[in-house]
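Quick illustration, no need to memorize.
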Amino acid sequence: QVQLVESGGGLVQPGGSLNLSCAASGFTFSNYAMKWYRQVPGEERDMVACISDIVDITYYADSVKGRFTISRDNLKNTVYLQMNSLKSEDTAVYYCSAGFVCQGQARYWGQGTQVTVSS
C-alpha cells in the first residue's frame, strides 16, 4: 500500500521558516522523482519544487527560488521542503507527490499539510 505522509505544516509569521517532511512507503522511493505542490482554494495545484531520482537535480518555481530548498534522504524514504523567508502568498495546502520524472505527472499523492503565513 502506497503512502505519502506529510508533516511540519502550521502557522508562521511572515519572514519565518518551516520545514515540511514527507515519509514515503509502499514503493521504491529511490526510483522516483519527488515533488512538492501547493494549492489555494479556487486555484490549480502548482508544482513548487522537484528533486530527481538519481542525481538529485532540483527544480523550483520562480516564486520560491532562493527561499525554498528541496532535499531527500533515500535511506529514510523521506523528502523535505525547507521554506525560508515565508510570505503571506505562500499560504496554501502543500502536497507531496512521487512521479517518474520531474516534468511528468505525479503518480502518487499525499493528503496535504496546511501552511499559513500570517501575522
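The chain has a mean pLDDT of 96.
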